[in-house]
Amino acid sequence: MLPVLTDVRDPAALAETCRRLGLPPPEPGSVRLGGREASGWVVRVRGLRRPVVCDTRTGVVAYDPADNAHDRYAHLMRFVERCYEVRARLRRADARRAGRKPAKEVV
Fold first, then answer.
1. What pLDDT sits at residue 38?
2. Is 83 exposed, middle or buried (CB count within 10 Å of its CB: 0-12, 13-18, 19+)?
3. What is the pTM for the complete model shown?
4. Per-domain residue ranges for the chain?
């Protein structure tokens, strides 16, 4: 298991990212990645051999070492970037509904 420290901590944004990308919804669970167990939200990202596990409590995204090749790792990073974009949009929408001016986010 290889970890990426991210700011993917919002399960709603994670689920919405999967929906927008046409991926199966994340499911809570554990997966064995590279000889180690990872628990959290299991997501199957296109372009990767194995699922990734997003721990929304810590922000760690775990993936299989076989997916560390340049092309596959790029798929993982695009997924994480998309999660950030979706989270920012959801926050702006929440701020508008609450009648506040949305704060500019630095992602």
1. 95
2. buried
3. 0.84
4. 2-97
